[in-house]
């Protein structure tokens, strides 16, 4: 989410589009790979806890300036268990349509959906 103070409005940046923009080196490359996964996000600063991801744009936790703040909404540690990775997508620049398009998706057969952790029951 980006705030336009002059127009008094919010500009929504979708996660996949942000990832494609970053993955193509801000439009300088014709292809990129996206890994679709889920992580557990800490409500507080958790740099030293390996299994927890963080929200670097959360101004309540990270009040100081960061040069990398615009690179992503969630910062995960290097190690993500393989069953939390849904798959890998290859995206390529489609010259005829003048846009990025998904070339292929390789799903992970060991993927475990995050719903298995939820204690929220279906509504009756």
Number of strands: 5
- What is the N-to-C succession of helices and strands? EEHEEE
Uncertain segments: none
- Overall mean pLDDT stands at 81
Structural class: mainly beta
Strand order of the largest sheet: 3-4-5
**Percent in strands:** 25-35%
What is the CA-CA span between the terminal residues? 34 Å
Shape: globular
Largest sheet: 3 strands, antiparallel
Assembly of the depicted chains: single chain
Number of helices: 1
Q: Helix amount, in percent?
A: under 10%
Give the radius of gyration.
Answer: 17 Å
Could you write a compact summary of the structure shown?
This protein is mostly beta strands and 124 residues long. Helices cover 7% and strands 26% of the residues.
Question: Overview of this structure, please?
Answer:
The protein is mainly beta and 124 residues long. The protein is built from one helix and five strands; from the N terminus they run ββαβββ. Strand 1 and strand 2 (9-11) form a beta hairpin. The model has no long low-confidence stretch (mean pLDDT 81).
Summary tags:
124 residues; mainly beta; 3-stranded antiparallel beta sheet; two-stranded antiparallel sheet; 1 helix; globular
Question: How are the elements arranged and paired?
Answer:
Elements (H helix, E strand, L loop, with lengths): L1 E3 L4 E3 L3 H9 L7 E7 L47 E10 L4 E9 L17
Antiparallel strand pairs: 1-2, 3-4, 4-5
